[in-house]
Write a structure and sequence with these properties.
Helices cover 6% and strands 37% of the residues. By secondary structure, it is mainly beta.
């Protein structure tokens, strides 16, 4: 009997640079697996799958594309819950738009998995606090939070630029 099997794999990567020059090699690179897919994020994916342009809740359906996607960071260490709709930090949180060529999609083949990569850069004047929570959104405010990860990535200072990359693979 044939059956479908698909695994959702997530990898977050933070690359840390001295100053604002991100064209050099980073002085540190932190890679962490996993996240929690939120109810609102999962619902948005299903609405996109069926082509429902208005969504079924008070929040309008929006794609996680270059014009709408934001990676967010905050300093809260509050536990992750599937019902959450935003980062949990009270004030130290920021959503950053995608770099120009992101997200990037790779089709799955018989030898490779399908994947999507989102990437945002945080300059020396942005998000200078402990990075304890990270997430992907489809709006600069409000919108849907696709996923959230609670992890200590270090404390960013004004002497550094950090890039945050999220890779979602379906295999």
């Amino acid at each position: 009997m044939a059956s479908d099997h698909l695994e959702w794999t997530v990898e977050w990567c933070v690359e840390k640079f001295r100053g604002d020059d991100t064209s050099t090699d980073p002085y540190d690179r932190v890679v962490v697996p996993g996240n929690l897919l939120t109810y609102g994020g999962a619902s948005n994916l299903i609405e996109c799958l069926i082509g429902n342009g208005t969504g079924t809740s008070a929040q309008t359906l929006t794609y996680f594309n270059n014009g709408n996607a934001y990676l967010g960071v905050g300093d809260s260490s509050s536990a992750v819950a599937a019902t959450q709709t935003d980062l949990q930090a009270a004030t130290n949180k920021l959503r950053k738009a995608m770099e120009a060529t992101y997200p990037q999609h790779t089709d799955g083949t018989t030898s490779t998995a399908a994947s999507v990569v989102w990437k945002s850069s945080f300059s020396t004047v942005q998000a200078n606090w402990a990075w304890n929570e990270i997430a992907l959104f489809n709006g600069s405010t409000g919108g849907r939070m696709l996923n959230r990860k609670l992890v200590s990535l270090g404390t960013k200072t004004s002497a550094e630029s950090w890039t945050l990359t999220l890779t979602v693979t379906l295999a």
